[in-house]
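for the writeup, i need someone to sanity check this before i put it in the appendix. the sequnce is what the collaborator sent (i think, or maybe the updated version? ugh). structure was predicted straight from it, no edits. if anything looks off just tell me and ill rerun, i have time this weekend
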Amino acid sequence: MNAETSALIEASGGWRELSAAAEGGRLPQSAGVVIPRVMQETFAEMYGRLVLGDDNLWREGRHPDMISAGDVATPPNIDDCRRLQGELALHPLSARRRLAVVWMAARLSAEASNSLLKITEEPPAHGNILFISEEDNFIPTIKSRIWLVHVELPEEMSKAQPMPRSNEEWARWMDVGKKPSPEILYLEMQAWARDFAQKNDYKKAAEIDFLVRIMEQRRLSVPLIEDLVFALFKEEVPNEQIFGGLW
């Protein structure tokens, strides 16, 4: 679990709300969170530790009693949702509860969403459900059944920021002494994309967003991310050389 990303989540009002509920024994069985994509996996583990306990069975963000439908890049289909319901009904393997995570919940098809209505309203006694989304556009029938919180970025990180231009600016961004996490770099790059979008350069904004998604999937290290971004946007290496090497 990434320390920098965890600190951002812990500083949010949404997380403080959930933590207080957990401490008071009031954590909802059905919850939802709206949170930037690059922070979602860290949040899922943090929430999982609230529900399942902070034991030594966690491995790379996973726990035997945490089950998922879909992933950070792909919404679950109806078969995934039906499988999730069956697995959530099973007795916990090691914890006192089970946690089902529904990824990209605002992108569920109507069929998949409807299949989850009953279990969202009435989860098993030992079960919790977490819906994760980047946008607050859950279908109303799901939204009305969950405790929904928002994890917002600090104001200085949510603003559009221009991409580095001079050699000095690029050098500061690539300063490995700061040891930023991949997630922090992605958030910075998304701020560049917002800046390009505000300037109506939607092609460049989309290019940055596409690159972030590929890097997320490949779980690249900080130095490799920096090198690839510098090559693409400062040295102007052709896109196909960059993207082709990442597929």
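The beta strands are 30-34, 66-69, 98-102, 127-133, 147-150. Residues 182-198 form the longest helix (17 residues).
thx in advance!!
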